[in-house]
Design a protein that fits this description.
Layout (H helix, E strand, L loop, with lengths): L12 H30 L3 H23 L13 E3 L4 H11 L1 H19 L11 H23 L11 H20 L2 H5 L1 H15 L6 H4 L18 H28 L7 H20 L5 E3 L1 H10 L4 H16 L1 H7 L4 H26 L3 H18 L10 H7 L3 H15 L3 H7 L1
Antiparallel strand pairs: 1-2
Length: about 425
Amino acid sequence: MNSIYDLDGRVPLRQALPFGLQHILAMFVANITPIIILAGAVGIDRGISASLIQNCMIIAGIGTLIQLYPVWRIGSRLPIVMGISFTFLSLSIVIASTQGMGTLMGAVIIGGVVEGCLGLFPNKWTKLIPHIVAATVVAAIGLSLLPIGANSFAGGQGAADFGSARNWIVGSATLVVCLVTLIFGKGMLRSLSILVGLIAGYLLALCMGMIDFSSVTDMPIVALHTFMPFTPEFSLDAILAVICIFFVSATETIGDTSALCSGALGRGVKKKEMGASVACDGFVSCISGLFGCTPITSFSQNVGLAALSKVINRYTIATGAVILIVCGLFPPIGALLATIPQCVLGGCTLMMFGSIVFASFGMMARCGFSQRNMIIASLSLSIGLGFTSAPDMFRIFPDIVQTVFAQNSVAVVFLCAVLLNLILPKEKEEEKAA
């Protein structure tokens, strides 16, 4: 049993499967949602939309496997779960609506290559991201996820029954079961606290008539994925805009990798791991574009799950990646997992997102609470979280600046932290340390 807490431990398949499934259930809906929203906004044919949903599951599984078992210098060899990123959604809708899906895919392919090449040379840029900057970005990621967890808890933003009594009941019951299992559970049961809570919440939602199985019965049993559903076209303005968002995505991946090492592995992140993680982010996003999907990135909720459960075994996480690929090949399986109500996911994820914030506190403590570190962390978080809570204040800036920064607190926090780290003098901090 202890092997699941070891990165390279040997774990029997019967033990690995439930832990792998737990990771997939934590991210499944979030992985397919960007594609569903994009397809609806652009007006993509229903048949093509179904193929894109399949493709995004397969791409997420492939990306996760590459992170776990690197190809050359691509992949961090860390238990990072990959999925389709929300970060690119608003820009993707704008480009696809005005210039077509082909132009969007061309920009994704080129942007993925740029980010991937950036990850291959970590020594050229990781010195810009010392531990205090990484810790601040991790805090921003955790804090920015809390409203997402709260919205899911209430039924999902835009839902007709948002904040209804039944969403409160199911979400609360799910959270309580997760918490009780985590506190009083023993061994394997304790490590599976999120899965136990999710199953309990799902059964309660089923009894309350909140689950619709009609989408499962309408699906074909087996369906092959579609390669290049859109012919890539290359437009310079679209490519430059997407590359800017790729830098934001790289920031999130760096933060997730740092949080995983700190919260789950109990150590600092290595430059090589940081670069390899970003390289996987970029090059797999390039493959994602070839399959008609938007870019892929590391999933913060799974980082929180690893920090909470301490299950870091690569083989165990790989079983989850295989489940994702199988879901892409057998649509009814994916459709069944997609029936999980948002309130159930919200009850599970609230605690996981909080664990990311807690991990950032530990990272900051290891950096030391000098005045310089205090200024970098506090001012970056104040500006990043404060300004993006009032996005209209960015309207005096060009559209590209609004797209990248107005509603992306992680990007603003990262930029501020890097600039402050470069600007603030280090003499006082060094004298104090001496």
